[in-house]
Amino acid sequence: MDVALANREVRPWLDEVANSRIHATLKERPIDRFAIERTILRPLPLPYSGRQPILQAPNQHRVPMPIESLQHPLSVYDAVAEEVRA
Questions:
Q1: In the chain, where do the E strands start and end?
Q2: Which of 19, 54, 66, 69 could cross-link 31 (Cys pair, CB 3.0–4.6 Å)?
Q3: Residue boundaries of the structural domains of the chain
């Protein structure tokens, strides 16, 4: 499965299952909680650029930190937030 397919498949699941069911601990739907908390969320502090952090290897070569292959860029979460607002 590639990232594009995973993103297409997860959207209906998020809408129909994960964000619509009552959360066992919160006793409310995640989509409702997000609507409340969205108003108090603050932007990430600068100078966050979305770039990968660099690990310093013992031999002093710079090595990019590995990122999980299905990790979403922040723009995906922005798009989800826009859909929730609509």
A1: 54-56, 62-64
A2: 19
A3: 1-46
